[in-house]
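Renewal narrative, Specific Aim 1. Our central claim is that a sequence can be written position by position from structural information alone. The example that follows is taken directly from our test logs and has not been curated for this report. It begins with the structure tokens describing the chain, in the order in which they were read.
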């Protein structure tokens, strides 16, 4: 599969999405990145990081999932009501049912809900973002 469109989904302040977009754009400037934040602050920060397109909210996630080749975000994007309730059931369903390859970033405690990902080794986000870039190299 040739990757042409990456969808990055993030919540809260968009810090993780920002890091991902900056790193991916540095290595793959030709790949289109669409950033979708669950709130305007997250969207704004990801757009400043170099996303080609950006939108906010539930319908943007649903639409973006239909067009993406790869979806990247914290594992909470597939869990309804996670990330302090910013992930709606429709968002989680759209991500889960998308034909895109999903690169989900494990977080030991998924903020704002009672889900714990067991067996996750705590590591700096820089390491996680580097692993995403390496896996994208395998796909491209």
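The sequence written for that structure reads:
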């Amino acid at each position: 599969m040739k990757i042409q469109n990456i969808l990055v989904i993030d919540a809260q302040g968009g810090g993780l999405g920002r890091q991902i977009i900056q790193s991916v754009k540095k290595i793959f400037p030709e790949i289109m990145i669409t950033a979708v934040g669950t709130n305007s602050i997250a969207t704004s920060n990801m757009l400043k990081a170099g996303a080609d397109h950006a939108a906010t909210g539930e319908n943007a996630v649903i639409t973006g999932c239909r067009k993406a080749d790869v979806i990247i975000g914290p594992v909470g994007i597939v869990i309804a009501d996670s990330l302090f309730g910013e992930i709606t059931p429709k968002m989680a369903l759209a991500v889960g049912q998308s034909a895109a390859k999903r690169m989900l970033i494990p977080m030991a405690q998924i903020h704002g809900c009672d889900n714990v990902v067991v067996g996750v080794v705590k590591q700096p986000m820089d390491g996680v973002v580097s692993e995403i870039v390496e896996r994208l190299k395998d796909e491209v």
